[in-house]
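step 3/5: co-fold with glutamine
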Amino acid sequence: MSDRMRDTTAERLRNYRSSVFDEASALARRFEAVDLGSGTPDMPVTASVAQAVSDAIAVGRNQYSPVAGTLALRQAVAAHGARFYDQRIDPVTEITVTNGVTEGVYAALASFVDPADEVVLFEPCYDSYIPSVQLAGGIVVPVALSAPDFRLDSAALLAAFSPRTKAVLLNNPHNPTGKVFSKAELEEIAALCRRFDVLVIADEVYEHVVFDGRRHVRFATLPGMAERTLTLSGAGKTFSCTGWRIGWAIGPQRLQQALERFRQYSVYCAPTPLQYGIAAGLALPDTYFAELAAEYQARRDLLVRALDDTPFHVFRPDGAFFVLASFAPSDYGSGGECCGVLARDVGVVPVPLDTFFASLGRAQDLVRFTFCVRRELLATASERLARMGGGAAAPLSSVTLPSC
Ligand code: GLN
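step 4/5: write tokens
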């Protein structure tokens, strides 16, 4: 017998790399660069929301909530759905509180996907999606959203559907492109879901971060979609508390029952006092939500203006927190290298996009910058980016950089 311990990591996890967001932050610390990697908002949590958490703790609301979540938060989620989307939701039977939306996505896939079921998603996609489908035993069927406008290609969409399609995993507004799907595009997806009898898992966590007067369309409100859609959203982006890990899943009771079975044996429930805080947040006046969108629009404009004066080609986002930027392959060897060079030579760190694609090659010339940090930091980032000039990018030096 050898005294070396074998690799105990489960095989299904071995091909996944560490978080690009953590790596970007590490690069930022190492080079004292502005971290525009992770979409981590830095707005303060509204005082009344924080107070509601303290109050819940003080009055002893510190134990497990039901698996489905506290009734207070489920009622607030239902009221928010009625206020913003004229949607009728039963808070008792049609909502499950999740531990953030990333957990909600995984729980949904684990609850509905059988081995070899196909899941259609739009690529690039948020970096947890592909592993989540695979860990649930499903097969990823990507539909490319291509630059410059990331418009949905009807032929590619139709080609992705088959009798084996179990679910569509939709993210709107879309991370990382900043695309907001048009109503016509959403209707096209809806028609195919009806035709092939497919479930829709709609991650709408950026529902309140849409720009230039747009209004978010909740997929479940399209004709015939309420019965086959699980809407996922959450508090992190809307109330600037991504560390609280509070999200929710809205949809018909039969979907909730499956979700509950999976979650009762995995996470059980979300933190109880924080659920009370978010119930208070969802009741904030309309002005809160309008001001949030206006602030992020101003931040978007700052970053897009700064990037426009660099060698990057920029895609102007209509929603969410991110700007995609492409570079000439002759400037940097890969997105990871680009991030390393920017961290060291410019003092700004984006994230590479390789984990946002099912096939690595397609991410080679793209990086994603977030603009969810405060304006002073964006101003510093802009000054630094301005030093790049508008011509050729900084040359790649021979220094070995950590892949980011
Ligand atoms: N969802 C956010 C993003 O895309 C944050 C991810 C993270 O930092 N874990 O950046």
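step 5/5: annotate
The first strand starts at residue 34 and ends at 35.
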